Every structure is written in C-alpha cells, then in structure tokens.
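Late entry, written up from scratch paper. The run itself happened at the end of the previous shift, but nothing got recorded in the book at the time, so transcribing now.
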Amino acid sequence: MRLLRMPSVYFLLAVFFALCFVPGYSIYRSLSFKDVPPSYRDLPDYFENIDHALYPEKIGKDFEASLSAEGVFVIDVDSAVPLYEKNVNERLYPASTTKMMTALLSIENYDLKDVVEVPQASFSGSLMKLVLGEKITVENLLYGLLINSGNDAADVLASIYPSGREAFVLRMNQRAKELGLKSTHFVNPSGLPNDDHFSSAWDLGHLAAYIMRDERIRSIVRIREKTVFGVSGERHVLKTTNQLLGAIPGLDGVKTGYTDEAGEVLVSSVIRNEHRVIIVLLKSNDRFGETTKVVNWVFESHEWKKF
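Output as recorded:
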C-alpha cells in the first residue's frame, strides 16, 4: 500500500493552526515581535528598547469593571503593549493634559534657570497667581504649570518663545506630528476648550510615555505640594489636584484636567517592579476611582515575561 506524503507547506500550516488551539498556548510566544499585528507596531520612534523588554502576559481575568470614561488607553511603556483600549482614537477635549506638551516644548527650548518677566495678559481658569511684571524662573513656571495646572504659567511659557505665543502653538502641533500623534490639534498652551483643540487617549498615552523619559519632568509631576518664589519674593503655594499621588503605590504623575466640555480627565503613570504603565481616561465621571480600578487590575492580572 502506497502512503501519500503531505507536502511540507501544508504540514506546517496544519501544525500552526493546531497550536493555535492548544489550551494555554499563545501564538505571540512563538513569533518575533516584528510579526505582531500592526496595531502593536504602529509606534513612535522613541520606543527604542522595545526588542529587549519584558512583556506583560495576562494571568488573571479580563477587565470587567464598567468605566464611564469615553476614551481609555492603558499601555505598558517598555514593551508598548496595549493592555486595555476603549475608543482610543476618538477625538476628545484634553483639557489641562495639554500642558504635557507645553512642558515638553519648554524643556526642549528654554534654560530652566532663565528669568522671564510676566507680561500684561488676561489669565483665566486654574492659576498659580502670577503678578504683572513679576520676574520668575522658567523652572518655577514649570512647577506652576504641572503641579498647580496654572493657565497663567502656560501662557507665559508660550509668550517667551521666539516669535511669540502663536509660534509656540504652531510648534506644539509640529511636535505632535513628529511624535506620531495623529488625532491631536492644539490652539492654546493650556487646554482651554475650543472646537479645534482636541486629542485622543492613544495620543495622550504616548505623549505621557515620552515626557516621562525626562527626569526633570518626572521630578515635578510626582510632587503634591510646593512653594515657589519670584525673583522679588512673590510667593506661590502650589497644590496638585491629583488625589492619587501618595495614595496609590508607585503612582508618580502625570497630569489632571477638567473643563465642563472635557469632563474629568486624568493621565497617570504607575511604576512597580520597574514596569511603567500609562493610564489615560478622557471624559470620565470618576477619574480617580476608575483609574484606581484599572491600576489594581493591571498589576493583579499580569506578569512580565520574556517574549
């Protein structure tokens, strides 16, 4: 009796599909990261260590809590693996999380020890209460920007850019494109509501991952309260609105936001056992409670392993 020999290509395909249905087997464990679907590879260039990262593997149940937030994105920074997504590319108001980009451009373009003078301007919303004509360092403006979410600090930092505030906002949009943020457009440096001022959970998550590489920014966004002074002694007491700082182990920033149009917004960074996770909630009814639920799920339901 003659045996029919299965062509090797069909045999390999049969083995491949059989393995896909073996309990507990994940196809991603057997492939190089370059073979992972495009949604995992559509990343900004700054994820340079991705091929050497440990990867989060879900060992517990799926996230089952109901979130009011309209846009949610949770990403493991080192591996760039998304852990949870909800309407990640929907354009929503970012509110004061805009100031992450304002801080980035300030770090990239100014000397933190430079002293600037507060110009005559009309400031509204959350303020660090700068005084007209006050002279203050760029560093202290960054404290007011990121801790107290000062709209006045944002406007002053934008106004000292070469060619002024409008050029600063133009550069914000250019920088967003350079970082691969495709659903973001800014019209001001503070996040005040405007129909043409928007971002997405995906974009804000990757922006946060990028700025948290900078120790100067990391050192500011983890602070709950600080007093800074102008050159002539003007006193500014700064307090964060982030209720989770000091309440959740490993949470070290990054930015809150709120307007009536945006609802409650929160971008968080949590690092445990050297694994940093970024969590973005846009238009939430309970940003602190919902972020807490997500953090607990991430670190209770995942282990980081070699890919």
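The domain at 95-305 is CATH 3.40.710.10 (Beta-lactamase).
(Scratch paper discarded after transcription.)
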